[in-house]
Structures are given as C-alpha cells and as structure tokens.
Amino acid sequence: MKRFIGPIAATAAVGLLGLATQAQAITSTTSIIGNMGITAQTCLQGLTLAVGDGENCMYDGGPSSATGAPFGEVTGPYNHIAYYDSLATPAAFAAGFVTAPGDGKIQQVINGSVTVDDGGNGFGAGDLLSFSLTLTSPGGGDIVRNFGAAGADRYTSMTQVLAPMAASSATANGLGGFDYVIGSEGFPSLLTFAVAGPCLGQAFGSMDCGFSFAAASLDPDGWAGASAAGLGSLESNFGAKTVGSVSGLACVTSGTACTVGQVSFAPLLIGPNGATGGGATAEDVAWDQLLLRVSTDAGGNVVDMAGFDVQDYRVFGTTRCGDQTSTTVGSYSPTCNSWSSGYFTAVVIPVPAAVWLFGSAIGLLGLVRRRAAQ
C-alpha cells in the first residue's frame, strides 16, 4: 500500500498548485418558472406625431435629443395586444376580433433556466447573464396573440434564448447577492394608467380594459408615476437582443399576407431572420430590446427576475426594425419609430416538500450508517 502514497501526494500537490494559480469561473444555473402579462402595450409614436398633435406615447417621455422627438403630453399607450388560449377562446384567432375586459385573456407560462457567470473574478460587476425561456399557454391549447384589426398569430410555444451578455449594472442586495440589470438607462419602473375610465390603476402589461387611440380623455398625462428608463431604442434604453423561435405557427390578417406587411401597429411573427415566404418586411420572433432584472443570493443562485420584451417597429412604412439580421444594436433610429412590449416575472422553482423530506431522510440515514461503522 505504501508504494501509492508518493504518486497520490504528488497529484494532490499539483492539483492544489493549479487551484491556487488559475482563476476558475463560477457559473450558477437556476431553473425558473413565471408568467407573461395578459396584454402588451404599444406606442404608435409615428402616428401620434403625424395626426395626434405631436403627443407623446413613450414610456418615459423619450430622448429630447432624438430626431423628430415629440413635444406634447405623455399619453400612455394607444393600443393593447391581447393573449388567449386557442381552445378556450377560438374566436380570438381572427382579424377584427374585439377584446373585452374579463374575456379569457391568459398569462403565458414561462419555464426555463437562467445562468450567471462570474467571469472568474467573483460575482459582481461584469458578470454575464444568459437564459433559455419557453412560453406556453396555461390552457393546453396554442397561444393566440391578437392585434385587433391588424390580425392575429397562433403558435404552440415560443422560445427565447439570450446569449451570455454582461449586465449593465450589478447592485449588492440584502440576500448577499446582486440585483443585475440589462438596460443602458436602467430597469423601468412598472407604471400604471392614470386616466379615469376602465384602465385607471391598471399596470403596464396587465391592462384588461377598453382603450383606443381615438379616446378624447388622453390629455393630460396617461401614466401614474414616472420612470427614468424607456422601453427600447426609440427611447434610448438599449437592452439585449434574443434569438427567438416558435412552433406550430399560423397567422391571419385583414386583407394582406401574414408574412409581409403589417409592420405598422402590430408586427406579426414570422420565422427567424424573416426567411419565411418572402417576409422581408415583417418583424421576426426575437425580442429586439430585452430589458431585464435578475436578483441572486450569496451563492449566485437566481431568486427572481423580471423583464420587458420590447419589439421595435415602424409605423407608416415597411422597414423591418431590430430583427435578428440587424447589426445596428445600441443606436437610436428615427426610422423605427414605435414599439410594443409586455412585462414578465419569474421566480426560482421551489423544491417540493416531499422531495426535500426524502433527501433529508436519505442524508440522515447515511449519517447514521457512517457513525455506526466508526
């Protein structure tokens, strides 16, 4: 037996030396579960400038230095995109479907994992965030995304993948971890609607109410509260671009092909990079300006997260904005003059009590056996 002591000791010494001289990056991957809000809100800024007396529907008022910046009141959103289950509300998959409060809108279910990479220098500034998230309907059918007069999409699931990206900021929190943000201007505050009527007090991303561009009550300010951070390149808050895909995709529009046009008001889903059916003018599936907040504990494990899934697009034109082929990331473009966005949250998947008790029992049994053997 003694003849093995030398090699073992030498191997251990080499291992310790390598550990002491080589920084090892630590990655922490956490499974999460969450929900997307029942609606997405849209800012048709090109329309508000052209026919809305220069009013401003940007989330934070918009950058004063941007070409064509609005100068009127901040009105809040002019339109809602609503989500339904295809089995529970089949009529929603139609152009011109009229939404109503309490008509069966769904919160899409989010399942996936989030990874934090410390880069080898400990958790904190400069850490990389990445994820893979899949959205499905809680009702067992397809997800229907209805745009009203413009049309609707239907898909079985959507997957969004964020490649490792350095957080814009990392702030120490009370859990011993960090609150990470992706967003050059920070993470927007969740605003509520301020105008008297059916939308009063309802939060961005969950506005289940009747509301339209023609409403006479848009003046004055439509938002309660204020946010220093906008929602996408139109407002100079630059986030992350994801890679998106959908399964079981179908779509319907009012008088035009699904894979072309409809860039105005509500971009319809198509295949990655706009490759489906000559869809050079339609938006792709990727989130153009993801704004993300991820909170971790002392071990780098994700505790919760929230985000805005921003799609940039153009009103009055067929320019495709912010798609997966774009190379102009991190710059304001007056061509892409509008956005749509929802809001989502997620938390760590809890370990079921039965699983915890079973693991604890196994650990206790092993401890008893080891002590009995001593």
Low-confidence stretches: 1-22, 260-266, 271-281, 324-328, 353-371
Question: In angstroms, what is the radius of gyration?
Answer: 24 Å
Alpha-beta content class: mainly beta
Number of helices: 3
Count of individual domains: 1
* Overall pLDDT confidence: 76
Q: Quote the beta fraction.
A: 25-35%
- How would you describe the shape? globular
Sheet with the most strands, sense and barrel status:
16 strands, antiparallel
User: How much helicity do the residues have?
Assistant: 10-25%
Number of strands: 18
What would your notes on this structure say?
By secondary structure, the protein is mainly beta. The protein has one domain. The protein contains 3 helices and 18 strands. It has a 16-stranded antiparallel sheet that branches. β6 and β7 form a beta hairpin. The chain starts with a helix and ends with a helix. The relative contact order is 0.18.
How does the SSE layout of this entry go?
Elements lengths: L4 H17 L5 E10 L2 E5 L1 H7 L27 E7 L23 E9 L10 E9 L6 E4 L4 E5 L1 E10 L2 E4 L3 E7 L9 E2 L29 E2 L18 E5 L2 E4 L35 E9 L4 E12 L24 E4 L1 E6 L4 H21 L1
Task: Provide a compact summary of the structure.
By secondary structure, this protein is mostly beta strands. The protein is 12% helix and 30% strand.
Features:
mainly beta; single chain; 374 residues; 3 helices; 18 strands; 16-stranded antiparallel β-sheet
